[in-house]
Batch of 4 targets.
Target 1
Amino acid sequence: MYIVAFVFLPAWRKRHDAGKGLYARSQDDNKLSVNYALRHLNCKVKWNEDQGDLVARYDYQGGHFNIRLEKDSPYIRICYLYFMEVELRYLELVRTVANLCNLNAETARIVYNVNDETGMVGAHVVCVVTVTDSTVVEVLERAMDDTFKWRQIFMARFNETKDNNDKAEDHDMEKAQATLGHELALLREQEMAHQEAGDDWHQEQGEDTRLARLVEKAMGLKDVVPIRLAVFADDGTTTLDEADDILNYDITHPLIKDGAFRRLSATARLDFYDPADPVKVRHLTMDFEQEGTTADTLYYRITLSLAAASVACGMEPSDRNAPRRQASVLLGYDLTPCEERMKRFRYLCKEAEAKARSGHEDDMSDEEQLLCGECWYDDRWLAYNGKLLFDQSRFYEAASLFEELYRKEALDNTGSKREREDKHRKTCFWLAACHAGLRQYEKAIYYIQQTEPFDNTLSMELYVNCLVNKGDHRALDIIDNVLHALREAEDLRENDNDARHKFTDEQVEHLYHFLLRRRVYLLVTMRRFEEAERLLKQMLNDPQNSDFALKELAYIQRNKTRQTEG
């Protein structure tokens, strides 16, 4: 009976499937075919069900494979998972090598994932194929052989370029975002270890966060004299009339209670006198909204809006000293117990210090290098936490940490002059980036000018963005000067007197196109439409700028139409 099944059943199915279309094959059809092929290849298979999909796990020539049969799909997905794992610092290299391999592979595709908990990048080979009973053995065998081939090619190419990648400057934003998840625990350990290091804006269960600090940092309103605070929520209204109670009001209270969100949103109104203009009562509206939840953090956003004062009160809208009209800040409320954070933090510190003492700096992970990057423990804490909060778009909290580090560095005389200047420039860059994220462009420009922005492409782009977004009169001249220098300096690398010789060709090209787009934006804002159109038409042929050019041309056309109709 078994002989009949093995010999005649495949022959019958071959005739049976001869006239069937691709999408006529069911999940059960593919399972029968896969079982037959794996038996032919001497593979022992174990089937499981995963949310309606069938998953087969088996070994082939020493490799651990699985096959996924999706419901209502004729395709077979062959996966060779985690053939390599590397640290997060190699994320950019993994992606680059995977893209090169995928351009040349037939059906195999190399993909990767990031594990935030372990801080590792895993590489996998995936093949998606279709089979019939007459081709299933050949297709599966060819796909798995291709998997081994591309695994070897990937690993060989990765190892060839790994050393050069270690020496290259990294500007990979995906890597920065991925690193954030792994380093989040370390952030909280350091905050708990240094409560006396200044304003940190780290919040945990039971820790008070004062309204006075929010109003000062986000809106630039110092020493306000509060009159009344009203908080409006779905379960009623809370009113405070005492000045001290208002200034010390916990801004987590409208949304968070006992370590959990208790409502989606709330609104508050603060009535106060501004000492800078104590003529009339001012009104500040605050909108509290949930932004998401993780196992470690409750994220929420506060949007503040200051009602305009009348001209009769002496508060002209163009007054340089006037407070901001609007601000929006993202905040986090940490839930991880102190003991867990401290245990993790101490372990990482010991690992970093041990590697530093033994001369194994090249083996350090990014977080270990950062822990050893500052001379003083408090400075190390401030820099690391500030960067991590910035990556989370928690610019308001990050700025407080970098401001404290900025003040400490001004009094620091340790190390060489070059080392102090490098640390100062890094701190100023992140301070500028935080204030730019908060749209406080004057402060951002103040800090970014201390970084010698024309010696670094990232600093230059941040500087230009701040000038353009603020509407600074210097913006167009600075953009034109840099563009002129880039056009003339074809031998940037050969000219040692030019600081830009440190830029790679890719950085120069990226900067050039960035400046073109910023120049067009300024021209359109200044309503110099004809100049902008000429430049945009040239940019249409450039893949990097074509989408931008089309949108700006459409915007210009709409404005011209309105002018004609008006």
Target 2
Amino acid sequence: MQRRERLPERGPADRGGGQRGERAEEGLRLVDEAVGAGLAEQTAVLSVLDAEQAGRPADLLRELLLATEGGPDGA
């Protein structure tokens, strides 16, 4: 289900007043749910790697970051 499909429909009398707190809470709940699901999926994907393999992408990303920011090895 797409994120927009889970959002409550706005009625003709709904101008955003009074229910803002409820909507904010619902929005935060949906964000927490989506982030949790994303992290669970990433964990499942990475679970096939051993510790050394899992560390390689982090090392490569660190090198790229240093190169783009002009760090120790980047000009």
Target 3
Amino acid sequence: NGAYILASETCALDIVGAQLVRNIRPGEIVIIDDSGYRIEQYTDDTQLAICSMEFVYFARPDSNIYGVNVHSARKRMGARLAKECPVDADMVIGVPNSSLSAASGYAEASGLPNEMGLIKNQYVARTFIQPTQELREQGVRMKLAAVRGVVSGKRVIVIDDSIVRGTTSKRIVRLLREAGATEVHMRIASPPLKYPC
């Protein structure tokens, strides 16, 4: 219909029925005015640098980043993790929501059932961004709940996407133990975060 749509993720285009034309390249700027649009190169002193946390955490699983589907990438991370860090357990659970794809890959590669052992309160913001440790811990307490009927008496492998500060991981282990899990094995789907953007 003649509209221009620019979005940071392809899922936003899908929602409104738009088609991806191309990615904006490093050093480019898109200018939209009454005469239409144009793309200008404001610098050549740049290179493509994709933030790994987009694939690991930030992007929605139904988005594509430079042609790679985020869900598929996360699932492959989980499958590789299962091969590199196997453990004898009863089930795999993912930390909602960004770890669910990796948990699916881990479960599939290990032959274990993928269960919903944690549920997320959808109304709590990202906890690792909170300014103080106290607020981060409070956020994690409000954000997640263990499903006792699923984890009680079970040896559980928990797949999380990343560790930024460790607040969430500690709380998850405590939640699952309090819900009756006999063993809790944490597995992280991404390498250590050493050089953040």
Target 4
Amino acid sequence: MTPLLHDPTRAVPLAELLAGLRVAGVLAGDLRVTGMTEDSRQVMPGDLFLALPGIAGDHTVQHSTAALAAGAGAVLTDSEASAASLPGVLHCAQLRCHASSIASRYCDHPSHALEIVGVTGTNGKSTVTHLVATALAGLTQTHRVGLLGTLGNGLLGALEPSTLTTVSAVAVQGWLAALRAAGARHVVTEVSSHALDQHRVQGVRFAVAAFTNLTRDHLDYHGSLAAYAEAKLGLFDLPEVAACCYNAADPLAQKIRERVSSRMPSIGWALDAVASATLRPTYLQMDRDGIRMRGLWQQEGWEIVSPLVGRFNAENLLAALGCLLLLGHGAADAAAALARVPSVRGRLERLASSKHAEGTESGAMPLVIVDYAHSPDALEKALLALRPLCSGRLVCVFGCGGERDAGKRPLMGAIAERLADQVIVTSDNPRGEAPEQIIDAILAGISARDAVLIEPDRAQAIALAVNAAAAGDLVLIAGKGHEDYQEIGGRRLPFSDQTCARLAMEARGPC
């Protein structure tokens, strides 16, 4: 499946797409377009090309010229200079704010025919979207549920790989159109802070907007935690949000309540007693076998028995339950559907070698967990969640991404040292940076450096951890989760934490 963004049989009047917008320039009054794109390399004859400035610089003239050469019927830009210098180019002020709505018009407003759940927050987006989408498939007895986000884009069970948490404004509408055409009734999507800041979902109608939590991340882009928080809050300012589900225990909860006020139904959830929480468990048990919790919602009892582990996965389950309740599902049915959802790849994922079936005790192997934790808060929560599951040493293998927020590196080093018994620092998508430079920044937060093992080769670091661990130990491999690549020097090389860990477990064999 691919986004539906070009259809030679469907010619839409350009005037219809731009109705109500302040557009300057001269084009034929009856011009029709048969597609849309923001990428000049993907322009097809008859397309409308949206020339949006990139983060790395404004190359509007260059890309507009290429688009026209490829047969674009028209180009829309927010650069007055470009519009004045090139024939066939129209000027639209604040184009980035309008791009999603223009694409929605071209695609015939696909979100109006779908029930869409949008999930934002620093941590938990992928797990919550997976939980909601999979539960919906069970509740509606159909696999026609769409999922958009880090885990991939498309119909549940047939996802296409994704390089962005939230795709471009035009691509979002194209994916929604494709999912509508494929018969989907529900779509669950992650909504990143970048997407909100860049108005990529401005033209999407959300049945439920959900918030998981806010902690430090992406400050290389947003500049400050306050700006990052404001971007997240933008989801609840969108004009077409019907209901709100939020973490009542998060410091941002009060601002969310102020934003939504009485405009829409809302559910605030929390694991503990929080005054504003309307959804919380009356019983909660967490161990290495999973999570069991139960409670009451509007006099209806519910219970979730899940194979997921850790406190933050209990939070993710509660967030997913809140979303399903706001979609109109009964509490008992929604909880039962969530209980049937298996663990999410790369989210506190328990591994086993082929010699020992998944979920069984080998009597010799350590417990090996792969998790996507790549921020200070996520790493801290993962280690805290796993400590009760570990009767021996807690080993942490992690690194930090290159060309990203460098300020979090020493913070993650300090957290790993404080909460793990053994720390192995390695590489994690170094991109254009030298791995040694990133590792040095991590070590700056560690006081007892001599106790830390350093192995820049991630595969070797994983093997080192697995081979040195004893029965009863727990090895956390953090940072990459579901990713099947390592970004080095501008290239994505095949790499899987799961594969490396299983190979090490196979080679090790029983003790």
